[in-house]
From TrEMBL:
This protein's name: S16 family serine protease
The UniProt record lists the keyword Hydrolase: yes
Annotated GO MF terms: peptidase activity
Alphabetically ordered keywords of this record: Hydrolase, Protease
Organism of derivation: Streptomyces orinoci
Amino acid sequence: MPNPPRRSRRVRTLVLCAVPVLALLLTAAFAPLPFAIARPGTTVNVLADHERKPVISISGIGARRTSGQLRMVTIIATGPRVDVSLADVVDGWFRTDRAVMPREAVFPSGQTDQQIERHNVADMKKSQDSAVGAALGYLHRSPKDVKISLSLPDIGGPSAGLLFALGVVDKIDGDGRGGELTGGRTIAGTGTIDPDGSVGPVGGVALKTQAAKRDGATVFLVPKAECADAEAVRLKGLRLVPVTKLADAVASLRALTAGQPVPHC
């Protein structure tokens, strides 16, 4: 019996080799991967009420009313138990309103959902305490004379510290001349804060600028170290203002209201 033509043998060999490769590719396409997919989240005006309760409550001194907004911003990520496929990862890489992040960069490894929740709540509480300390330090006021409470349930993490501190400064002192820090604008921003007023990076800034623009902000306060990340998605009509200290942010907001130049990314 004659041997099959050489070309036919070659085609059959290629087909046989392609089958396991295709199987591996299909498995990879649908197998869960150690990534989280993040997207722009909610924003909250810290100068107003949230869920029928003031975000910032002040006693022991008169707190003034404000007409502008100071919006803290969030990102939303797929949960630690949610499977992310190769298709999800590829889709996230090609979208500006999504970010693919290592799961361990979003959620501490080896922890239960309850432990992660407690961790986020603890970070938020620490951020709030630091914000109050930084604001009162900037205003040269004693915590013995001014009582401040912050309430923002269902949102965790430390990234609202800067906006909390600015909200306290605005409600107590404004710009020192009776005017609002916001100048009636909608200001958004992000950044951790230390009791000495130092502002630190937070991550997810490109997504947060999109949330801010969506909700009407025209100015975004960004930790200076993350300017490049914030500029990754250029949003028309949203001014990026870098800050390294609480005093920087206050000075920039005062300059904006006075129509003076301000730093920019």
